[in-house]
C-alpha cells in the first residue's frame, strides 16, 4: 500500500497554536496510508533529517506582530543553510500552513502569505485550505468550519484572556483537522503519481 509521510512543524508560545497543530496532525493521521508526524520547533534546533524524509510539510505558528513568531521565523531562516544551500532538499514536497492569533483578523493573512513565499523559495507545491468561507451570511455561525474565511491556509482565533484549554474554538480545530486531511490525501496522490 502506498505510504506518504506528512510532517507538521510548528511553534507555540502559550499553547494555543499547539492545539491547532495537534488538530492538523490528527486530521492527517486519519487518512489511511499516511504516517503523520508532529514537531515543535524553536529556532535552528529542528528535526532536519525527519523533515527531509517527509512528502509534505505543514508549517504553523502564532501570528505575533503581524507575522510568524520570531521563534518560528528563526527556524525558517535556518533552512537557508540546512535545506536550501544543502541542495534544495525540500524541492517538490507539498507545503501548507496554519496560524492562530487573538484577533479575528489580527493580520493572520500576512503570516500565511509569508509561509507561502517561504514554501515557494524551497520549490514546494502549496496546498490551500479547500473550504468555502463560513459565518459570512445571516445563516452562518461561529460553529461554521472556516468561520474566519481564509482560503490560503487554516486560521484560528484565541481570545487573549483565555487559556489554551478554552481556545481556539472547536470550529477552528475542525478547520485545522480538515487542512491536515486535505494535505494527507494530496500527498498520497503525489506519491502514487510518482510511483
Ligand atoms: C509578541 C506577541 C505579538 C502578538 N501579535 C498579535 C498580532 O499581530 N495579531 C493578533 O491578532 N494577535 C497577536 N498576539 C496574540 C497571539 O497571537 C495569541 O495570544 C495567540 O493565541 C498566541 O498563540 P500561542 O499560545 O500559540 O503562543 C500577539 C501575542 C504576542 C505575545
TrEMBL record:
Record keywords: Flavoprotein, FMN
Domain Flavodoxin-like per the UniProt entry, residue ranges: 6-184
Superkingdom of origin: Bacteria
InterPro entries linked to this entry: Flavodoxin/NO_synth, Flavodoxin_CS, Flavoprotein-like_sf, FMN_Rdtase-like_dom
Needed cofactors: FMN
Pfam family, one: FMN_red
PROSITE patterns with a match to the protein in the record: FLAVODOXIN (PS00201), FLAVODOXIN_LIKE (PS50902)
GO cellular component: membrane
Single GO term (MF): electron transfer activity
Descriptive protein name: Flavoprotein WrbA
Organism name: Duganella flavida
Amino acid at each position: 500500500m502506498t505510504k506518504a509521510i506528512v510532517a507538521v512543524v510548528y511553534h507555540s508560545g502559550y499553547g494555543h497554536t499547539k492545539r491547532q497543530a495537534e488538530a492538523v496532525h490528527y486530521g492527517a493521521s486519519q487518512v489511511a496510508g499516511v504516517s503523520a508526524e508532529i514537531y515543535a520547533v524553536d529556532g535552528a534546533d529542528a528535526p532536519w533529517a525527519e523533515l527531509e524524509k517527509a512528502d509534505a510539510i505543514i508549517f504553523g505558528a502564532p501570528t505575533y506582530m503581524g507575522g510568524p513568531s520570531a521563534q518560528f521565523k528563526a527556524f525558517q531562516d535556518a533552512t537557508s543553510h540546512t535545506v536550501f544551500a544543502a541542495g534544495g532538499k525540500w524541492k517538490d514536497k507539498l507545503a501548507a500552513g496554519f496560524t492562530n492569533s487573538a484577533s479575528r483578523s489580527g493580520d493572520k493573512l500576512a503570516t500565511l502569505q509569508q509561509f507561502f513565499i517561504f514554501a515557494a523559495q524551497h520549490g514546494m507545491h502549496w496546498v490551500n485550505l479547500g473550504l468555502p468561507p463560513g459565518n459570512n451570511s445571516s445563516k452562518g455561525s461561529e460553529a461554521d468550519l472556516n468561520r474566519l474565511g481564509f482560503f490560503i491556509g487554516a486560521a484560528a482565533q484565541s481570545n487573549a484572556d483565555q487559556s489554551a484549554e478554552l481556545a481556539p474554538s472547536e470550529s477552528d480545530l475542525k478547520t485545522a483537522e480538515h487542512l491536515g486531511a486535505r494535505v494527507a490525501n494530496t500527498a498520497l496522490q503525489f506519491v502514487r503519481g510518482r510511483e
